[in-house]
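Supplementary Text 2. Reproducibility record for the structural model of the 256-residue chain.

All settings were left at their defaults, and a single model was retained for analysis rather than an ensemble. We include the record here because the model underlies the residue-level annotations in Supplementary Table 4.
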Amino acid sequence: MKLSTFFVSSALIFSVAVARPSRLAERIAARESRRSRPFTPSDSARASGNSTHAEFSTNWSGVSPPSGQTFTTVTGTFTVPTPSGNGAASAWVGIDGDTAQQSILQSGVDFTASGGRVSFDAWFEWFPNFATDFSNFPIAAGNVITVTVHSTSSTTGTATLVNESTGKTVTQALTAPDSAAALKGQNAEWIVEDFEEGDSLVPFADFGTVTFTGASASTASSSLGPASGVILDIEQNGEVLTSVSTSGSTISVSHT
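Retained model, structure tokens:
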């Protein structure tokens, strides 16, 4: 869950982050205020046409395995898309934030489109802290990124990103911001998110399709894939904006 101060005018202006390969002169806000938001149900309780397990959310699209276990590690690999239009979205993996909404250990990549230009940010976050960008980790459209988050305890963990296309790896140790943010391990997720800046969701970019491969969520004694998970679709203002499908350890999230 990330939150950046993402100020949006009628012209949609975005700020620049150090890790971005593209410099957007129009971006004026600082990324220190960007943050994810826990799973937020939409006005519709359940989605139709996608899966008997599908649910609607205003901000999350992807898969969350059923709770009832204690997840400690989540991993997935995806190809960075080229967003279009004016807006942004984020692909990430994480622990908690669905039924356990006081905390999320997560990491992933933002993709932003503004005025025909695109930019990317790799980040880590322990909600309710804001997201922090990885430095010296350039990303381009078409790069293959593997993201892994691992909790070493309820209040400590790591986030690791591997750019399989460049061979670059970054790892960050994280600590819960306070005792209320201790992980429950109830949820694991592979998500494309309409994230938050300045207490409101950013305009949701058309990202085409993000496909997570090698998706796996582990407990202390076993691991499982997304097949048994709950499918989440984004619905805003009565319009369904995503479509999700799963096959084995693969999850495809498409902008509709």
